[in-house]
Write a structure and sequence with these properties.
By secondary structure, the chain is an alpha+beta fold. It is built from one helix and five strands.
């Protein structure tokens, strides 16, 4: 929210960081460009990201550019 303009700021693209528990501890990989995904595509992307996290196969790009985080 931009208090000076009294307006909601919508970031582009919308990238959601999702907190996940792994054997290495808590991590926050990012689902990128979620505004372009259908709900089904979002669920598939989440599960793919979760598998990469559990298998310790995340890349640096999987952990960058979150605009909001869910835990």
């Amino acid at each position: 929210f931009d208090t000076a303009a009294q307006a909601l700021v919508v970031h582009q693209p919308q990238n959601i960081g999702v907190a996940m528990k792994t054997d290495l501890g808590l991590i926050v990989p990012v689902l990128h460009d979620v505004g372009k995904l259908s709900f089904e595509e979002l669920v598939k992307a989440y599960h793919a990201l979760r598998q990469k996290a559990l298998q310790n196969q995340l890349k640096r790009s999987d952990m960058q550019d979150g605009t909001i985080t869910l835990s």
